[in-house]
């Protein structure tokens, strides 16, 4: 009998510790939903929402995330970002996609949709679809003046649907040549793509090449190529979105390109 009581006490302590580690939520293991694809319509789906980081912040402390973007607190994202679970993030192939989200409970919810960009991954298996939002994005679902009260809910049910990404009129597709890139290895981050928002394929072509060579996804929204023959610039890029749109940025990377540099193209997809 004494051993039974000890075992029960140990089990009770384990439950408390588990709850503390999980931020007060019950730890669950819900199977993910089907991948959200580049289809658009009026149907709203159910999801869970949580938030992380500072209450009025843009999520991660470094304003980055698993897509490789930086400065998500600044234009054009302005902190309206989300970590999507696997059927939304899709091992990085969902980076840059856009979703409308809204909530009607608790009372602080406005039930008016706001748009968020996928910039990061979350691993919590609490629902088939789960958006871990920045503090700013979570509060944006509230009635005016009720943002802080809504954030105190911590977790809530929301409705979501995929939408076309829209950017300010002067926003163009931008490339960041990653650190460590050289003529035999180049890694490129692709960001600010309107329309589908996400990129599922990138091709690269050197100065006198006739065809694009496929690049491999490195991680997030970063694509790379290793080549025994140095790539001679200027370099052109061919982008393919999830919905099948192809965009070509001719000679976008100059001959004298350098690693850790940003290149703004004159290209943008249709919204």
Structural class: mainly beta
Q: Can you list the strand order of the major beta sheet?
A: 1-5-2-4-3-6
| Percentage of residues in DSSP E strands | 25-35%
How many beta-strand segments?
15
Short description:
The chain has helices at residues 2-21, 86-89, 135-139, 147-151; strands at residues 45-52, 81-84, 98-102, 114-121, 130-134, 155-163, 174-177, 185-191, 199-205, 213-214, 216-219, 222-226, 235-241, 246-253, 261-264. It is mainly beta.
Structural description of this entry:
The chain has 271 residues and is mostly beta strands. Helix content is 13%, strand content 32%. It has four helices and 15 strands. The protein is elongated. The protein starts with a helix and ends in a 7-residue tail after the last strand. The model is unreliable at 1-26 (pLDDT under 50).
């Amino acid at each position: 009998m004494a051993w039974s009581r000890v075992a029960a006490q140990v089990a009770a302590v384990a439950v408390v510790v588990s709850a503390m580690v999980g931020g007060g939520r019950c730890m669950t293991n819900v199977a993910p939903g089907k991948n959200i694809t580049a289809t658009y319509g009026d149907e709203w789906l159910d999801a869970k929402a949580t938030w992380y980081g500072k209450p009025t912040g843009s999520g991660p402390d470094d304003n980055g995330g698993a897509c490789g973007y930086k400065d998500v607190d600044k234009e054009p994202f302005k902190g309206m970002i989300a970590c999507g679970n696997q059927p939304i993030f899709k091992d990085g192939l969902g980076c840059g996609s856009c979703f409308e989200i809204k909530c009607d409970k608790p009372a602080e919810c406005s039930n008016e949709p706001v748009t968020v960009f996928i910039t990061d991954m979350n691993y919590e298996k609490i629902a088939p679809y789960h958006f871990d939002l920045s503090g700013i994005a979570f509060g944006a679902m509230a009635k005016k003046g009720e943002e802080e009260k809504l954030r105190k809910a911590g977790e809530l049910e929301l409705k979501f649907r995929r939408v076309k990404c829209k950017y300010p009129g002067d926003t163009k597709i931008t490339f960041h040549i990653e650190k460590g890139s050289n003529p035999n290895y180049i890694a490129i981050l692709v960001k600010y793509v309107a329309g589908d928002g996400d990129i599922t394929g990138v091709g690269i072509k050197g100065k006198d090449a006739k065809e694009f060579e496929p690049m491999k996804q490195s991680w997030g929204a970063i694509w790379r190529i290793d080549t025994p023959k140095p790539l001679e610039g200027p370099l052109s890029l061919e982008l393919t979105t999830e919905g099948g749109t192809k965009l070509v940025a001719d000679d976008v990377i100059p001959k004298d390109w350098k690693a850790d540099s940003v290149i703004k193209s004159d290209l943008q997809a249709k919204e």
